[in-house]
Design brief:
The protein has 145 residues and is mostly beta strands. The chain has a single domain, classed as NigD-like, C-terminal beta sandwich domain (Immunoglobulin-like), CATH 2.60.40.2370. Helices cover 13% and strands 40% of the residues. The protein has a 5-stranded mixed sheet, with no helix packed on it. It is globular.
C-alpha cells in the first residue's frame, strides 16, 4: 500500500508540473501582442464599429500604442487598425486611420481599459513623413518611417 501511495504521489507531481508548464508564451514579459495595421480599399465592411474611447496614443518607431476604454465584459472583443489606401496629396501627405472595434454583440456594461499595439509600417507613404489622422483622436500622429 505504501508503494502505491508513493507511485501515486510521483504521478501527481509529474502531472502538476506538466500543467504548470503548459502556458503558451507568445511575447516576452508582459508586452502586448503587436498586430499589423491594415490598408483597406473600402470602408463598406467596417460600418458597424462599436464605441471606443481613445485615451492615449504613443508612437515609437513603427509601433503605435493606443490606450483605450470601452464597455463590455461578456464577449470577446477584437480590434483592428485600418488605414485608407487613399493619401491626401498635401505636404506632408495625410492618411486617415480608424480603430475598428468588433464587440461581437456584447451588451454588458463593465468598464474595460486595454492597451493595444500595432505595427503601422504599411501606413508609410514612401516619401518620408506622413501625418496620420486617427478617428476619435484630436492630435495628428506624425509618422516618420
Amino acid at each position: 500500500m505504501k508503494r502505491l501511495n508513493f507511485l501515486g504521489a510521483i504521478a501527481l507531481s509529474i502531472f502538476l508540473a506538466s500543467c504548470g508548464n503548459s502556458k503558451e508564451v507568445t511575447e516576452e514579459g508582459n508586452t502586448p501582442a503587436v498586430k499589423k495595421g491594415v490598408i483597406i480599399d473600402s470602408w463598406d465592411n467596417y460600418k458597424e464599429n462599436a464605441n471606443t474611447n481613445i485615451n492615449s496614443v504613443t508612437l515609437e518607431g513603427d509601433i503605435l500604442t493606443l490606450g483605450i476604454s470601452y464597455s463590455g465584459g461578456c464577449e470577446k472583443h477584437s480590434f483592428d487598425l485600418l488605414g485608407s489606401r487613399d493619401i491626401l496629396k498635401s505636404m506632408p501627405p495625410k492618411r486617415g486611420i480608424v480603430l475598428y472595434h468588433n464587440s461581437n454583440g456584447d451588451s454588458c456594461r463593465e468598464f474595460i481599459e486595454e492597451t493595444l499595439t500595432f505595427d503601422i509600417s504599411d501606413f508609410a507613404s514612401g516619401t518620408g513623413t506622413i501625418h496620420l489622422n486617427l478617428e476619435g483622436w484630436d492630435e495628428v500622429i506624425v509618422y516618420e518611417p
